[in-house]
Amino acid sequence: MKNHNFTASITVDQTPDEVFNAINNVRGWWSQAIEGDTNKLGAEFKYHYQDIHRCAFKITEFVPGKKVIWHVQDNYFNFVKDEREWKGTDVVFEISRKGDQTEVHFTHVGLLPAYECYDVCSEAWGSYITGSLRDLITKGKGQPNPMEEVVSKARQMSNHDLTTSFTVDQSPEEVFAAINNVRGWWSGEPGIEGSTDKLGDEFTYRYNPHHYSKQKITESIPGKKVVWLVLDSQLNFVRHKSEWNGTKITFEIAKKGHKTEVRFTHAGLVPEYECFNACSGAWGSYVNGSLRNLITKCKR
Length: 300
Hints:
Elements: E1 6-12, H1 16-24, H2 26-29, E2 35-36, E3 44-49, E4 53-63, E5 67-77, E6 90-98, E7 101-109, H3 118-139, H4 148-158, E8 162-168, H5 172-180, H6 182-185, E9 192-193, E10 202-207, E11 211-221, E12 225-235, E13 248-256, E14 259-267, H7 276-297
Antiparallel strand pairs: 1-7, 2-3, 3-4, 4-5, 5-6, 6-7, 8-14, 9-10, 10-11, 11-12, 12-13, 13-14
Helix pairs in contact: 3-4
């Protein structure tokens, strides 16, 4: 019977012992947000990334230079119907000598094409194993944090992000200019610091003592789209003050007949967040009120 479990392999010049040590340095190649011990038999550890994925593992096999197995004790996805799809599966690393080189054969036993998460999860594992883990082994440094493209796909599947939209009589170019005039609708000086109108710009927002955030403009298409990536945040009115970190604030502009539609999405601001009610209310006022007024009346 054909094996449909997800697999990936890499071959490196390092020894099996060096490979084994790198695999067990999970924070060095998968995520710095790992909690718990990851390098001995029976150890239990947890992985989480914002609202998208939480997972708990137990190391059930640990053979130096040869093999490591993690058993998935619990799992939560926010972007598929069966939130626990990984639960009960096994993540297996097999190490073997191939001539003068060492092969790592990765298998996620139970991650099958029939799973709703398969495409996103297999893409993520493939990138971590053949990219980040390989780099940790061969170069001494991996890339242990989420890949933005994979995270974006998961968010699109979840469709729980805060969104709101409105239409105006002004042209897409006028709307685009107003969005980029962040001081004109979100906050003036000194609330906004930094340039807000071109690709690569970074700016900060402050509303003392409640809110600080730092944004970077990662996409800017005149008359069509603007995207801000939240690099840092501190929300002093919730327990997890960095809830906005890694989220994306998107403005999509489209012609609808004789009008222009503005669709606002804060990708990552989801109902599970403690700040959701307060933040969604604030965004609603700023976007549907202040930004709309700036576009239509040339004032906040």
